[in-house]
Design goal:
By secondary structure, the protein is of the alpha+beta class. 24% of the residues lie in helices and 19% in strands. The protein contains 7 helices and 8 strands; from the N terminus they run H-H-E-E-H-E-E-H-E-E-E-H-H-H-E. Strands 3-4-6-5-7-2-1-8 form an 8-stranded antiparallel sheet. The chain is globular. About 12% of the residues have low confidence.
Length: 234
């Protein structure tokens, strides 16, 4: 039987890939997964300068979620490449509407597959090189999911809900940590369990292909990010 560490590595290989582009009812619809990202959104052009700016030395992101607020502080020196990717995704609204689609009690809460299949398709092969592991995967640290292959990180992330130092040796490099709202992370809906085909939870391939429509239909109790905002940086 595979360990949770092996499952985490395998989950990242299922690939990847909200936004601040609109207001009012359209923005709310997008957060719920029912409105597509417009064709001129930087989210559909991962190689654009807008999606590849350098991250500041540190910054904080507030995730307004269906369970409450979570604030993450990122330190660029912990993992420069991972921090940069996260910074650009957050400032362009990538995480708005994303579901916490894989929440395993006593392990972690995973998110980062976009609700619009077109955006997921754009980011699926946009892998970044591995950062050295300079910090440990302790409770509250945020890290990229990845496959067993080197340099396979894209947009999927997870928050450790327990001390998972065993992941350090496999190259999972934390780039930030929850500084407010860890109790919210602990309350994220987890009853669907492990994802398909190992469990009865969401199938990542279908999520990438069908977007939030699939989750709304088959897994309506999943918690989600309403809006992610960079609230402070320096």
């Amino acid at each position: 039987m595979k360990s949770r560490r092996e499952w985490m590595a395998a989950a990242g290989s299922a690939a990847i890939a909200g936004t601040v582009w609109s207001r009012g009812g359209v923005a709310r619809a997008q957060a719920e997964g029912s409105a597509p990202v417009p064709a001129d959104s930087p989210l559909l052009n991962p190689n654009s300068p807008e999606m590849n700016r350098d991250a500041p030395a540190w910054f904080k992101v507030r995730f307004e979620t269906s369970k409450g607020d979570i604030v993450v502080q990122v330190h660029r020196r912990w993992a420069p490449l991972g921090s940069g990717r996260f910074y650009n995704l957050a400032r362009h609204g990538y995480f708005d509407g994303c579901r916490f689609f894989r929440v395993i009690n006593g392990f972690m809460a995973q998110f980062g597959i976009h609700g619009d299949p077109n955006v997921s398709r754009a980011w699926r092969e946009q892998m970044i090189k591995d950062d050295p592991v300079t910090q440990s995967n302790t409770r509250g640290r945020i890290t990229y999911a990845k496959s067993a292959r080197p340099h396979s990180r894209t947009t999927q992330l997870f928050i450790n809900t327990r001390d998972n130092q065993r992941l350090d040796a496999d190259g999972f490099a934390p780039f930030g940590e929850v500084i407010e709202g860890m109790s919210v992370v602990d309350q994220l809906y987890s009853e669907y369990g492990e994802g398909a085909p190992r469990g009865s939870g969401p199938d990542q391939q279908r999520l990438q292909q069908e977007g939030n429509t699939y989750l709304e239909r088959s897994f309506p109790k999943l918690d989600h990010i309403i809006k992610a905002t960079i609230i402070e940086q320096g």
